């Protein structure tokens, strides 16, 4: 334990201001909750990291134009190798693994994406799929001698990787591969760093041996630009994708090969190779196990996205909740104005998202921790694939919903760019699409669940290492569950909430499976039958399945909280998020027969409103507990001192200035500017 | 009627391309549907208007930087007075009144906002609230000699206009008013054109007579900048709000008065005045009637926003539907890839929004027409206030939902700025906030409805001119309505759909009123009781009330369609939008007892999916019918020729170019850039 003086030094008071009144109303000690969420070394590491960014000129350049954004972004990529916090020892504490992307993501989301492409995507592919001879490439990245990118997606194919059209044909005479882009639709695209910086690329291409046989897609590592001139190699056509909705610091690019020859060593040959004469050789004994491992690797990117979404969510609710406490408007007849957080509508707009921020914070840290410790377990690859393919969509969709609500809840002043909610939304939006389009990913999870159902019916024991779906072993208890309680206290009890989620998972899984079976009888085609089954069942199923798992994880962690007040407020947070999500699926609770008559619906709605009301006085302090440093908030509305109007006044463009072009307006209109 | 050669000349074929296949599948003649939606003169006017914009260099400048956006925007404001289409005679055809903002809104949303501020908001205030002596100011606007803005909102007060703090104190000696901004929170803000251009402003201020009496807020028209120098008058502090999430062509500004003296004629004195000696005089006999008229005036801005939202919605679904037809991904085992619009998920993602585009298009035109013809009817002011206060929120929220879905449905390529969906969302976002924050407006509508309910209970006849709520006169029939049908055909019948909406309106109104009454008994305060009642009841009530009215309007118009195929497809469009919205409120259909057991829920969901499936082959042609000109679509993904990849290839930045700053990357990292 940490003693109380030390704690106060570690977590000092927030600056005084209009938020003090709300801080005084909190029912719990925020420092205790903070230390439950983040151990001391994480807090210290985060402080050091923020300080390093705050004091580094390269991370504090003002960016305005597209080209300038890119220039600074390029400098940041190199600088990252020079800041000690980028090399912190992550092995001891896995929470740090989450802290690093959290901080960088808030400081500059583009910067984090480029870092992840260069240092994770490219490097892991070379390390994981290559052999001894490829390892010098990793070192060159770490020394900023090379920049790497990862080229899978093509203009015409993103999700359906089997239909990628880039060709790599082995030429035995020259002992190497000829890379060829047959048409524009086969051009590689969207790869980060490809647009301007990358010197090397990991490229997915269909491998053809000289006998004309296609062996499916393989990965090649190829040099695309000269390191000293940054000019493309001959045979390479490479360019930038252009301006995007957000993340403009990332130089996403496109790439075409014009019979580009690379030596044989370009093939990342850990699992398969081509002999000098052009014979294809498989080097791995158990392809199924390899597939499981591949799934687990793909999952890692998605798990990290959950952390990124959580960091954005925390930032957004921090801004919106602090503003809601400071902003006053209307009031009871002839009385003083009241803070807008006092309004039921406003509580309902924000507090479910605030609750979600805690739930996702705990879940995203836990799942990364489990990923590091349990990934060797059999069955792990399939389960983590199902979890990440549901959790990344749920987290990114929920974030978009939260960002829209927070932006609107901050009304007029929230529409200023400097409120930060617009850029956040524009950047966050990409999470719904990259590392697997959300709807396509959902289908992966529902396929996993549909395969389990027949086993459940046969009474088989369901045993996966992450325990996301093992409760199906006890199917009878779940199906016999009834809502026979009618008080608020019973309704919000974690046990009952978990039971409702389990019941709904089973209901949707059964309905989904039955619909799939019926469709199979008609169409005799699994693809068409799954398609027929998507909207209401499979999609809702994956959402409920993963939310159950998220809540189960949170509940287990919560049970270790010893402080009564902290525990109580976390129970409310748990219940509010859980019931808020459940209410969106109320139609299935009714049509499936768990809810009957007016009472349970009313109880559900009243419970949500009561939780909102009961959490209202804790809202500012909850936000204080998880809020990023003011430097990372970077919004005049969301700072910890709550002085919204003072910050706004200071940042407004100077008054009484004319635009430079004011004279143009006094001359008659011209046909051309 | 128009003969068929003439029709083909008026509405030529679309350019050939990958969309032809889908166009061939349509079940109806798009030209017939087009002429139902837009008469010939509207189509011709729109063509001329688009042509004028397309060929005018000022409307085709490339904008990149903030200051440049502003410069071009300022030129556009002046140019608008020189283009004949801006002066089209709108009196003959009210649809034109909708066409003008529709076209301009798509060409440049900022441009439309500045036009509306300058030519509508400022001018109508001067015309409507002023007297003879103020009319020369209107002429000066039309001749681009002045630019006008409208200053109501203050930094600390937006929605609660009664608490505005700007003061206008009459000084009898100098025969004028001293305008004073007591502190920064009282600074006027967010007014369009105030930031850089406005020479004049209509200002809301609390009027104080020399006896120290405050007579509430009044409007003053004051000069704030010199027309020849664009410098602020002495005593004025005026500046720009800074960069925003969207609409950056609008120079929103802030304004503080430092004991700024204006002559007595600054008071817009149609309804009240101050004598030379400083006595306050009311000039109007029936203040209640005046209040009704004021409500109707405020409504007009909101009704126009519905048209703007509709134009954005049409643009978004045009882009997303055309791309969904062109984009192919996956397919049944061993068969060719299929268009993503063939997937149930994708149909469900887009077709409800496509349907909504038709429903809103018809509604927004009709409500503007009614507004022009019936506004003298007693009770009109209150009803149109209730309608506009519910319809503007519903339209703007639905649009944001649609834009998020369309953006994501266009996946990776949809994240390019040139896809246009990002800017659309950033601009559209403001609709949720200006002309009344959506949640605050909703409360206005629910107040209107809550006042009617006791009359319904007393058996009074409910008679409002727009017939939005008159069905309450027949309360018994509605309350006795039961879902005793179980086929798809019956379920999607317009009569039954309208009945379900009426039942739900009554259910929510009754529940809302009961909760309000119960709360009143406890709190004895109407303000607090209404607040207590907001989230589930009042808000849902206003959504269902207004959707019923929108659907009723659409259904009545639809009945005039004589062509069987066109009528059939519009029936599907009607049902899909209606059921899609209804499904979001399914919890209340169950908890209120209209739905019992699994069957109606299943029928509702299956009907939605079947409608999606049945509309899928018509989707491209439906979009063709309402799509804006390719110039206005301005997106590589949404053009009428469907050549997505060709347009993408053409617009990509040139390959093999280095950034200008490439050398910086080869030298060691510097501490300062």
UniProtKB/TrEMBL annotation, chains A, B:
<dbReference type="Pfam" id="PF02770">
    <property type="entry name" value="Acyl-CoA_dh_M"/>
</dbReference>
<comment type="pathway">
    <text>Lipid metabolism.</text>
</comment>
<dbReference type="InterPro" id="IPR046373">
    <property type="entry name" value="Acyl-CoA_Oxase/DH_mid-dom_sf"/>
</dbReference>
<keyword id="KW-0274">FAD</keyword>
<dbReference type="InterPro" id="IPR036250">
    <property type="entry name" value="AcylCo_DH-like_C"/>
</dbReference>
<dbReference type="InterPro" id="IPR012258">
    <property type="entry name" value="Acyl-CoA_oxidase"/>
</dbReference>
<feature type="domain" description="Acyl-CoA oxidase C-alpha1">
    <location>
        <begin position="296"/>
        <end position="450"/>
    </location>
</feature>
<dbReference type="InterPro" id="IPR006091">
    <property type="entry name" value="Acyl-CoA_Oxase/DH_mid-dom"/>
</dbReference>
<dbReference type="Pfam" id="PF01756">
    <property type="entry name" value="ACOX"/>
</dbReference>
<feature type="domain" description="Acyl-CoA oxidase C-terminal">
    <location>
        <begin position="494"/>
        <end position="668"/>
    </location>
</feature>
<dbReference type="InterPro" id="IPR009100">
    <property type="entry name" value="AcylCoA_DH/oxidase_NM_dom_sf"/>
</dbReference>
<dbReference type="InterPro" id="IPR055060">
    <property type="entry name" value="ACOX_C_alpha1"/>
</dbReference>
<comment type="similarity">
    <text>Belongs to the acyl-CoA oxidase family.</text>
</comment>
<keyword id="KW-0560">Oxidoreductase</keyword>
<dbReference type="InterPro" id="IPR002655">
    <property type="entry name" value="Acyl-CoA_oxidase_C"/>
</dbReference>
<keyword id="KW-0285">Flavoprotein</keyword>
<feature type="domain" description="Acyl-CoA oxidase/dehydrogenase middle">
    <location>
        <begin position="149"/>
        <end position="259"/>
    </location>
</feature>
<protein>
    <recommendedName>
        <fullName>Acyl-coenzyme A oxidase</fullName>
    </recommendedName>
</protein>
<dbReference type="Pfam" id="PF22924">
    <property type="entry name" value="ACOX_C_alpha1"/>
</dbReference>
């Amino acid at each position: 334990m940490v003693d109380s003086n030390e704690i106060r030094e570690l977590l000092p008071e927030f600056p005084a201001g209009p938020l003090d009144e709300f801080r005084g109303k909190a029912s719990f000690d925020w420092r205790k909750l903070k230390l439950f969420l983040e151990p001391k070394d994480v807090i210290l590491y985060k402080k050091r990291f923020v300080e390093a960014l705050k004091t580094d000129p390269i991370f504090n350049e003002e960016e305005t134009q597209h080209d300038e954004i890119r220039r600074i972004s390029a400098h940041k990529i190199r600088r990252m190798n020079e800041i000690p916090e980028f090399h912190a020892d992550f092995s001891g504490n896995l929470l740090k693994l989450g802290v690093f992307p959290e901080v960088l993501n808030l400081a500059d989301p583009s910067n984090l994406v480029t870092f992840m492409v260069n240092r994770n995507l490219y490097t892991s592919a070379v390390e994981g799929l290559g052999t001894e001879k490829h390892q010098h490439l990793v070192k060159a990245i770490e020394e900023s001698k090379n920049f790497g990118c990862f080229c899978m997606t093509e203009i015409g194919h993103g999700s359906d990787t089997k239909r990628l059209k880039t060709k790599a044909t082995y030429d035995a005479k020259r002992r190497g591969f000829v890379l060829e882009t047959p048409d524009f639709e086969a051009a590689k695209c969207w790869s980060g760093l490809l647009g301007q910086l990358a010197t090397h690329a990991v490229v997915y291409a269909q491998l053809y041996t000289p006998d004309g046989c296609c062996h499916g897609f393989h990965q090649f590592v190829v040099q695309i630009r000269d390191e000293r001139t940054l000019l493309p190699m001959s045979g390479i056509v490479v360019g930038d994708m252009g301006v995007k909705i957000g993340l403009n610091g990332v130089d996403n690019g496109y790439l075409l090969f014009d019979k580009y020859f690379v030596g044989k060593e370009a093939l990342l040959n850990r699992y398969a190779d081509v002999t000098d004469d052009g014979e294809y050789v498989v080097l791995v004994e158990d392809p199924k196990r390899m597939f499981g491992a591949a799934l687990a690797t793909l999952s890692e990117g998605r798990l990290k996205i959950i952390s990124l979404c959580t960091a954005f969510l925390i930032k957004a609710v921090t801004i919106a909740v602090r503003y809601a406490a400071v902003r006053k408007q209307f009031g009871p007849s002839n009385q003083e104005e009241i803070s807008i957080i006092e309004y039921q509508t406003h509580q309902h707009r924000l507090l479910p998202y605030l609750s979600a921020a805690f739930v996702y914070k705990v879940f995203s840290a836990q799942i990364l921790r489990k990923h590091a410790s349990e990934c060797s377990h059999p069955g792990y690859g399939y389960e983590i694939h199902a979890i990440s393919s549901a959790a990344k969509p749920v987290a990114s969709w929920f974030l978009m919903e939260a960002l829209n609500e927070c932006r609107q809840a901050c009304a007029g002043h929230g529409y200023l760019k400097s409120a930060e909610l617009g850029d956040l939304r524009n950047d966050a939006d990409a999470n719904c699409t990259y590392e697997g389009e959300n709807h396509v990913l959902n289908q992966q999870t529902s396929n996993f669940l549909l395969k389990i159902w027949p086993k459940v019916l046969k009474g088989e024991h369901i045993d996966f290492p992450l325990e996301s779906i093992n409760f199906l072993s006890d199917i009878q208890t779940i199906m016999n569950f009834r809502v026979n309680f009618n008080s608020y206290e019973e309704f919000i009890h974690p046990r009952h909430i978990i039971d409702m989620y389990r019941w709904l998972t089973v209901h949707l899984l059964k309905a989904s499976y039955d619909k799939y079976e019926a469709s199979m009888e008609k169409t005799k085609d699994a693809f068409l039958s799954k398609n027929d089954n998507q909207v209401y069942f499979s999609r809702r199923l994956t959402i409920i399945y993963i939310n159950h798992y998220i809540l189960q994880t949170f509940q287990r962690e919560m049970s270790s909280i010893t402080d009564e007040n902290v525990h109580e407020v976390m129970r409310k947070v748990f219940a509010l998020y859980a019931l808020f999500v459940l209410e969106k699926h109320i139609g299935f609770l009714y049509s499936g027969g768990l809810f009957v008559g007016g009472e349970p619906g009313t109880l559900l709605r009243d419970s949500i409103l009561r939780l909102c009301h009961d959490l209202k006085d804790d809202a500012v302090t909850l936000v204080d507990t998880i809020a990023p440093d003011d430097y990372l908030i970077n919004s005049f509305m969301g700072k910890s001192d709550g002085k919204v109007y003072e910050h706004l006044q200071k940042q407004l463009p100077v008054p009484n200035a004319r635009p430079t072009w004011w004279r143009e307006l006094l001359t008659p209109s011209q046909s051309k500017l």
